[in-house]
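Researcher: Re-running this chain for the archive, since the previous output was lost when a drive failed. Same request as before.
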Amino acid sequence: MTRGIIRLTLVWILLFAIAGGEYLVSTIRMPQAVRPVILVFAVAMVAVIAFFFMHLNRMPVLAKGFAVAAIFWLIVLFGIGMMDPLTRHFWWVQHYNPM
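Model: Regenerated structure tokens:
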């Protein structure tokens, strides 16, 4: 029982360290093209959760396939959802004040 609690505590500290690193990197001024670097921290957190809490490393191949398919569809759905905000341009028109 004690070994399990120590393991959970270490994983919890690791998740907080990754979140802290993400916060520190997000406060750095960087060009817009480099900002997706912050996603590395999110991927690291997902990997920690998948391997320590979901125990994917001990699951059969079918379960791993379903996990990969779920991540793929999340990427597709978030990608489609982000297309509008990422590709929207504001064209300012003379004499237009939205306020």
